[in-house]
């Protein structure tokens, strides 16, 4: 996806923060890209997972999930919205199945 002059791929994104009428994209290399596109549009196009009203993360870059916070591989932490936790867990399970080529539940 071309975003304000930059080519952005889902694999290169760590997380995105929505800020009013623009978004701040943080790449896995630490580079930050300011975009005029909304968080919702970027989340849909890049297949990221919304974990809070203002934050979407790359589920493949999550290092740890706790009841009150999600820690990314970069060390960035976000407090997930209680409403978003079920969606996050579904996306993580689906990603596990696709990555491992199985339909089994990853916890069994």
From TrEMBL:
Pfam families given for it?
Answer: LytTR (PF04397)
Gene Ontology MF terms: DNA binding
> Its domain of life?
Bacteria
Q: Where is the HTH LytTR-type domain?
A: 4-93
Q: This chain belongs to which protein, by name?
A: HTH LytTR-type domain-containing protein
Q: Which organism is it from?
A: Runella rosea
Lineage of the organism:
Bacteria, Pseudomonadati, Bacteroidota, Cytophagia, Cytophagales
């Amino acid at each position: 996806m071309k975003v304000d002059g930059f080519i952005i791929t889902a694999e290169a994104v760590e997380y995105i923060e929505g800020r009013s009428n623009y978004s701040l994209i943080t790449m896995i290399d630490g580079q930050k890209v300011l975009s005029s596109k909304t968080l919702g549009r970027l989340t849909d196009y890049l297949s990221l997972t919304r974990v809070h009203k203002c934050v979407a993360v790359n589920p493949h870059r999550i290092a740890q999930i706790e009841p009150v916070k999600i820690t990314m591989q970069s060390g960035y932490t976000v407090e997930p919205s209680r409403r978003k936790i079920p969606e996050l867990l579904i996306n993580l399970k689906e990603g596990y199945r696709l990555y491992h080529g199985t339909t089994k539940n990853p916890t069994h």
